[in-house]
Automatic annotation (TrEMBL):
It holds the Pfam family DIOX_N. It comes from Stephania yunnanensis. Belongs to the iron/ascorbate-dependent oxidoreductase family. Residues 197-298 form the Fe2OG dioxygenase domain. One of its GO terms (molecular function) is oxidoreductase activity. The keyword Iron applies. Keywords: Iron, Metal-binding, Oxidoreductase. This is Fe2OG dioxygenase domain-containing protein. InterPro entries: DIOX_N (IPR026992), IPNS-like_FE2OG_OXY (IPR044861), IPNS-like_sf (IPR027443), Oxoglu/Fe-dep_dioxygenase_dom (IPR005123), Plant_2OG-oxidoreductases (IPR050295).
Length: 355
């Protein structure tokens, strides 16, 4: 299947092909589409990362509390003053743009066949099983525990290696704060999830201009696999999150900030205290949007289940069954994307315990 970029460049489109017309009532997460997304500028929490790494003891303690509140109440938050230079972020976005500008035959060399292939590019989400395609081209690269990179375009490898290392350091510090906010040791998540061997995936997305953006969808409502995702983009006006029954535009991010979201395996580990959040990507008819998401997960063979310290010691019952991370990843990425359907299959229906 050819890319969306090739489709729009091959002809002058005034309407989208029928197989890109997205049915917004196809699942329960989309039933809210009938309600216009709202603007909540300034509402999404902002975390000052510098307070975690160089603030006073009191400042760090306050920041850990803010991280916990953001995870509990939103599942999404901005991170500022994180120490990753803005030019490093811009170079990463530019390198991804250069990748999508490669000739179609060059990109086809890196299509991949399996979910766990370390380098894979394509279009939509899983075109092999989808009846309706999404207005999106993608590149996914495993950058940890073993670093991989496309050999084209020139310079991509060096740029992505530098960026991946810097983002990984931010992620580990954030997970330390999240551990503390849950009442466990700072290194708890890092050790329990075996993050020395944890999976880190660079996922670049291209959403070309669409002649009928009201009929197409860049990415359907979904939650992410893994623990944390850190995202940057070349422009706003594309990402929406589902919060308190409403779709909310994620616009006007602070300059050079990361948008961080809780992913499914942090929900499982925290026994539902911190929930992954459903989000989606919409498209426009004016300009291409590029986003670079850096997903961070446990070691592939790690069985992720609710942390005993947050279950038995707290008087709760486990709300999820355990599953190897690689099996979860294969299940989610190998089927049609539909909200939190993969996570829901692990949920245990049980009567409340003492709490």
């Amino acid at each position: 299947m050819g890319s969306v970029k090739a489709l729009i460049e091959s002809t002058t489109l005034t309407s989208i092909p029928p197989n890109y017309a997205y049915n917004t009532t196809s699942n329960t997460c989309n039933q809210q589409n009938a309600i216009d997304p709202v603007e909540l500028e300034g509402q999404i929490p902002t975390i000052d990362y510098s307070m975690l790494v160089s603030g006073s003891g009191q400042q760090r303690s306050q920041c850990v509390q803010q991280v916990g509140e953001a995870c509990r109440d939103w599942g999404f938050f901005y991170v500022i003053n994180h120490g990753v230079p803005g030019e490093v972020m811009e170079r990463m976005l530019g390198a991804c743009g250069d990748f999508f500008d490669l000739r179609e035959e060059e990109k086809r060399e890196m299509e991949g066949e399996e979910v766990l292939d370390p380098i894979r590019c394509g279009t939509s989400f899983n075109a092999a099983v989808e009846q309706v395609f999404f207005w999106r081209d993608f590149l996914k690269v495993f950058v940890h525990p073993i670093f991989h990179s496309p050999d084209k375009p020139p310079g991509f490898s060096d740029i992505s290696l530098n960026y991946s290392k810097k983002v990984r350091a931010v992620m580990l510090e954030l997970l330390g704060a999240i551990s503390e906010s849950l009442g466990v040791d700072k290194c708890y998540i890092e050790k329990e999830m075996e993050l020395e061997h944890g999976l880190q995936i660079l996922a670049a997305n291209l959403y070309p201009p669409c002649p009928q953006p009201e009929l197409a969808m860049g990415m359907p409502p979904h939650s992410d696999h893994g623990l944390l995702t850190l995202l940057i983009e070349n422009q706003g006006h594309g990402l929406q999150i589902h919060h308190n029954g409403m779709w909310i535009h994620v616009n006007n991010a602070p300059p050079s900030s990361f948008l961080v979201n809780i992913a499914d395996h942090l929900e499982i580990l925290s026994n539902g205290k911190y929930k992954s959040v459903v989000h989606r990507a919409v498209v426009n008819n004016k300009a291409a949007r590029i986003s670079v998401a850096m997903a961070h997960g446990p070691a592939l063979d790690k069985v992720v289940e609710p942390a005993p310290e947050l279950v038995k010691n707290g008087g709760y019952k486990a709300k999820y069954i355990g599953m190897k991370y690689k099996d979860y990843l294969a299940s989610q990425q190998g089927s049609q994307l539909n909200g939190k359907s993969c996570l829901e299959r692990l949920r245990i229906e049980c009567e409340p315990s003492t709490k």
